[in-house]
Task: inverse folding
């Protein structure tokens, strides 16, 4: 894949993820649903897997996490937005590590057990890993500082709250693999304008949402 | 659709096993959390237990943004140790969530009647809910 196309692809997937985190995540938090687990188990795992399966390029998911996390930072609304941004970036990195560790770039798996299992493993690891990294890094950026005991006593709650993310991941990965067969194709000439326009729309929507909520 | 592991037979077995382990681990953790979560009807500060009604008559009120409650630094002055600025304070929630803060943070913090701590100078991750204990260390 050309460099410009790769960057545009990272930007569009990362922006879609960031948009979902800001708008849908915000709505889920407002109605008191477990936004973190739902966003990780469905949107994060879904978009990360989809992009990896479609393009199979190492480093792409880390880039997506950076784009989505940055988008979350420009939307300082609902919950701990610094925590969310850190968790999103961490999820991109963790997905890279998990996928690279568990899979090579050679053959394909269509077995439902494997797909479901990978969904559980990736979603649970992303959620729990992202949560732990957030609990370490957020206090480090504050005047209070980080205390290891604060994290250790809360580990059972973090492990427990990952269950929903894992179960959603189990459903998401087979769905994503099914959707790949739809074989959506964008002509080469239209690829950059289309992806960049979608990315721009995502950013405009998030910034407009931020301005609307803070009442500017 | 997903790339197959290099060591096909080994990893094909490992991934479902890993998934099963994660499910069991999270299920056990859920049971543990359910069994250990308590209700926030009282609050223990510096090893002394108070009701929420008691502490709300002790400390002066404070407002941060849309939140109203009592000033945490004033609460500690009236219930905690001498020279409070020399200690750190661990705030424990009923669900096991805890955060350790400094005296400077308490000076910009409040405790709401619902039992949540809010700090003007710290991220929302420090908003411990259903506070049951403030440890002085």
Result:
């Amino acid at each position: 894949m050309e460099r410009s196309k790769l960057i545009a692809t990272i930007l569009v997937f990362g922006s879609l993820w960031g948009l979902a985190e800001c708008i849908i995540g915000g709505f889920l938090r407002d109605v008191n649903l477990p936004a973190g687990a739902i966003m990780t188990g469905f949107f994060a795992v879904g978009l990360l897997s989809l992009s990896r399966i479609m393009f199979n390029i190492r480093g792409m998911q880390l880039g997506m996490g950076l784009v989505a996390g940055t988008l979350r930072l420009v939307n300082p609304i609902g919950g701990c937005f610094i925590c969310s941004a850190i968790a999103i970036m961490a999820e991109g990195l963790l997905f890279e590590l998990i996928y690279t560790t568990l899979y090579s770039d050679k053959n394909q798996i269509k077995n439902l057990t494997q797909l479901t299992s990978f969904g559980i493993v990736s979603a649970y690891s992303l959620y729990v890993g992202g949560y732990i990294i957030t609990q370490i890094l957020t206090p480090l950026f504050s005047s209070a500082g980080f205390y290891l005991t604060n994290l250790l006593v809360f580990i059972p709650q973090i492990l427990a709250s990952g269950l929903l993310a894992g179960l959603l991941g189990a459903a998401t990965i087979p769905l994503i693999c099914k959707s790949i067969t739809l074989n959506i194709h964008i002509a080469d000439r239209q690829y950059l304008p289309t992806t960049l326009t979608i990315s721009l729309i995502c950013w405009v929507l998030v910034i407009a949402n931020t301005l609307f909520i803070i009442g500017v | 659709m997903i790339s197959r592991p290099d060591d096909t037979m080994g990893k094909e077995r490992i991934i479902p096993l890993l998934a099963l382990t994660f499910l069991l681990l999270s299920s056990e953790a859920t049971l543990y959390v359910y069994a250990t979560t308590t209700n926030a009807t009282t609050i223990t500060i510096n090893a002394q237990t108070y009701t929420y009604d008691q502490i709300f008559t002790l400390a002066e009120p404070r407002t941060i943004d849309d939140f109203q409650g009592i000033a945490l630094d004033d609460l500690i002055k009236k219930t905690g140790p001498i020279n409070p600025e020399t200690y750190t304070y661990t705030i424990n929630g009923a669900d096991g969530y805890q955060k350790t803060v400094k005296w400077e943070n308490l000076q910009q913090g409040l405790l709401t009647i619902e039992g949540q701590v809010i700090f003007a100078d710290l991220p929302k991750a420090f908003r411990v809910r259903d506070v049951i204990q403030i440890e002085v260390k």
About this structure: The radius of gyration of chain A is 17 Å. The helical segments of chain A are 3-30, 35-55, 60-73, 81-102, 112-140, 148-152, 155-180, 188-214. Chain A touches chain B through 54 residues (CB under 8 Å).
